What does this fold into?
Amino acid sequence: MGSIKDLKEYAKNNNIPIMQEDGIEFLEKYIKENNIKSILEIGSAIGYSAIRMAKVDKNIKITTVERDENRYNEAVKNIELFKLNNQIDIILKDALEIEIKDKFDLIFIDAAKAQSIKFFEKFQENLNENGTIITDNLNFHGLTKNPDNIESKNLRALVKKINRYREYLKQNENFKTEFIETGDGISISKRIKGNV
Ligand code: SAH
Ligand code: MG
It folds into this structure.
């Protein structure tokens, strides 16, 4: 136990939606190239993405938030297995109810997809001046391209909320957002200097 491969296998067997390989590789590269040293992650699940991000550089510090107790417990165990307790702080709480004072170079939103606007609005207060907010699952398995063809009403509503988030990002004048077609679709929102 204690390899990235094991984590991936556990996630697959237990239907835990961890980042896809090309998405996480993109994120690792972004962290390296932009010299990111502090990260706030919303949605830890079993700690997989936090562990991969922490392994980019031993000077990176991550705070990650998870509301599901079982997943939180798995994540705590995994962070210990990888001996990354000194780099990763995990908090068991609903991110919308948490008060965090610290500022971060990167905020990574990967939690409830219908609430991305709320997470973005709340946690932009925790972003350093030149910081970036990255969000995962902007394509939602390709469904965001044709929401009207979705039969399930709940799923259609969710996919429409993701598209509303895309619009919100495009119109947000305080950030410049790029949409990257890697993994399940990622947005990169860089704060425009002097705004907020
Ligand atoms: N980032 C992880 C995957 C996260 S899956 C990885 O790639 O390895 C999304 C997780 O967000 C789920 O475990 C879910 O329980 C959690 N989540 C959803 N809404 C949340 C909220 N409001 N606060 C905290 N965690 C939340
Ligand atoms: Mg995701």
